[in-house]
Amino acid sequence: MPATKRDREPTRRRSKKLRVLLALASAGLTLVLVEVTCSLVLHLMPSPVNVAPDEVQRELPLPHDGSPAIAHPVLGSVNAKNYRNRWSSTNSFGLRNGEIDEVAGDDTLRVLVLGGSVAWGFGARSNDETLSAYLERWLDQHRDGVPRIGDRRVEVLNAGVVGYRSWQEAIAYESTWRRLQPDVVVTIDGVNEVFGSIYTRRTGPPIDDEASFGRWLKRRLVKMKVVKLYKRLVSPTLDHDGLPTPAEITDAYARSLARIEQLARADGALFVPVLQPTLAIEGAKLLTPYEEQLQQLNENLGIGVNAHFEACYRLFRDLFARLATRGDDVIAIDASMAFAGEHEVCFVDSCHLTDRARRALAAFIGERLVAALRQ
User: Fold this and answer.
1) Is 201 part of any domain?
2) Is beta strand 76-79 parallel, antiparallel or unpaired with respect to 69-72?
3) What is the pLDDT of residues 167-191, one digit of tens each?
4) Distance between alpha carbon 332 and the CA centroid of its chain, in Å?
5) 132 and 124 in contact (C-beta within 8 Å)?
6) Calpha distance 243→249 (Å, rounded)
7) For labelling alongside 214, which of 91, 193, 327, 356 has CA 20 to 30 A away?
């Protein structure tokens, strides 16, 4: 008896499922082959930056040189407490220091440093090689003639968190660090104010308006070899659509600093905002051949990135010039040109520093802080 339409239906459904599965398998296999091919091409392509000079090799961040950052519902991330790896550790407060008392005694001058990866010490091979550690030693060695230090022990606390911007520091200080009752509050910012606005298209906290699947998909796409190869072959142009203007970025930065200042003043602390140096602006230093490549690599992130940095930093410097003339409990330090006379390599990328440069920046900040403490 010939097969009826009802008899043939299960066979057609199985055949349809099989065709769909074969199509998915074919697409998946094609994607794998494309990824493998792009990976090989990327491996064979010359590096956009030549091998670092011997004196810089030790300074380069290692693959496992990560921070202890963990997710936070408001701040985005915070440092894990009691974290430890080969290069860094945090204490029970999440600071990159040894254990401390929550409230320092009268015999201690406590300095709190807030900031992003430069403040954290990205690339430092131990807690003793961070900017905060060098600043602590510099202040201790230059205490003579500084009544506000006198015989007190100097303690510099490292509250830096990789990726932080000033709005995060303001919230973190108000919600967490005020209880440590620092005598001096230092912020080190600038680069993340600009990069953060490029990536999030906002000057403040990002709006969580993207579905979780969308965020997951975006994170996976940017890691694909085909996307990385495309970016290497075709230099993108900085997209200004929805990008905050330099004036908007500066206004947001100023508001965050004003909030930290307000809190520090209420706590009787001296506020010391520092504008960090960066290779992304002209005249930051006398560039070595290696640093010239790094500056160009920053431009490869998007044609116009360095010009955007220039425009933002011009306004940042104007802001710090205004803060410096106030003559109250704010010691504004424009360190954007701290390496202007340096001939040696100071940068390992657009903003992170060699060990020598961290020492030099600590001395640059320390000299101006000591001058203020003498008054």
Assistant:
1) yes
2) antiparallel
3) 999 999 999 999 999 999 999 999 9
4) 20
5) no
6) 10
7) 193
Range of the domain at 327: 70-373
Query: Among 74-88, 162-176, 193-207, which stretch is predicted with the lowest mean pLDDT?
Result: 193-207
Query: Is 8 a domain residue?
Result: no
**Number of domains, the chain:** 1
333 in any annotated domain: yes
Does the pLDDT of residue 272 top 90, yes or no? yes
Position 357 confidence tier, pLDDT thresholds 50, 70, 90: very high
204-222 residue pLDDT tens: 876 554 445 555 555 566 5
The residues facing 108 across adjacent strands are: 153
Q: In the chain, helix, strand, coil percent, each to 5?
A: 50, 10, 40
Report the DSSP beta bridge partners of residue 70: 78
Radius of gyration of the chain measured on its C-alpha atoms: 25
Spatial distance between the Cα atoms of 183 and 147, rounded to a whole number of angstroms: 14
Say which CATH number the domain at 268 has: 3.40.50.1110
Per the domain annotation, does 211 fall within a domain? yes
Distance CA 244, CA 308 (A): 11
What contacts 167, CB < 8 A, 6 or more positions away?
Answer: 203, 204, 205, 252, 256
Residue by residue, DSSP assigns 127-160 as GGGSHHHHHHHHHHHT-TT-TTTTTPEEEEEE--
pLDDT in tens, 95-151: 999 999 999 999 999 999 999 999 999 889 899 999 999 999 999 999 998 988 999
Angle at alpha carbon of residue 193, lines to 258 and 306, rounded to 5° = 135
Distance CA 369, CA 319 (A): 19
Q: What is the DSSP string of 212-268?
A: HHHHHHHHHHHHSHHHHHHHHHSPPBP--TTPPPHHHHHHHHHHHHHHHHHHHHHTT
The overall pTM is greater than 0.70:
yes
The C-alpha atoms of residue 323 and residue 256 are separated, in whole angstroms, by 13
Residues counted in the chain: 375
pLDDT the model gives residue 15? 74
**How is residue 115 written in tokens?**
């900031």
